Amino acid sequence: MVYWIHPVFQVVATLLGLYALYFGWQRPRCSHVGCTVAFPWKKHVRLGRWAIALWLVGGLVGVAVVRLEWGGFGVTDAHATIGYAFLVLALVGYGTGHVLDKVKKRRTVLPIVHGVVNALLVLAALVQVWTGYSFLP
Ligand code: HEM
Ligand code: HEM
To answer: Cβ distance 58 to 6 under 8 Å?
Structure first.
């Protein structure tokens, strides 16, 4: 039972992340191509914050369960390697988003770094389903 907490958290977070990415994508699309629907700033920020917070909490649950039940770290091979890198990158994704939200001004580089990092997180989360499911009881 305890093994399922982490995967459930990560799958819910990934669905929210996909939704945040869908809204985030409206931003560059609107600035460069032109669009009819404005970038839903507040909705994107709310979804993004929930997605990354759940990923981080769920990730720490995974680490704790491996430590307590299997007595170590990195037991899950590729899932662990990607997982630990993911947790660091998630802090970057959250931090850049927080700055973009709180300190508003015209920018070029930071939104791109933020968008690319977070799109990578969504992709990595989908890969983690593949690398992680075989460890479930
Ligand atoms: C954003 C996505 C995910 C991240 C960042 C992540 C990260 C991690 C990390 C860091 C660990 C500890 C690894 C170790 O020290 O060996 C872990 C354990 C584990 N992960 Fe994931 N994971 C993710 C998604 C998933 C998914 C979708 C599944 C299942 C389909 C899964 C299944 C597991 C299992 C079974 C464990 C063993 C501990 C436990 O069940 O709580 N993970 N994960
Ligand atoms: C899974 C989570 C997230 C994804 C996939 C995501 C994705 C994106 C993408 C693709 C963009 C467009 C970047 C560009 O214009 O080049 C964007 C913009 C933005 N994101 Fe996120 N994001 C996430 C989380 C967050 C969080 C947690 C926050 C705030 C705490 C945030 C705040 C913003 C803001 C304010 C912008 C507009 C930046 C600007 O144009 O000045 N995002 N996001």
So the answer is: yes
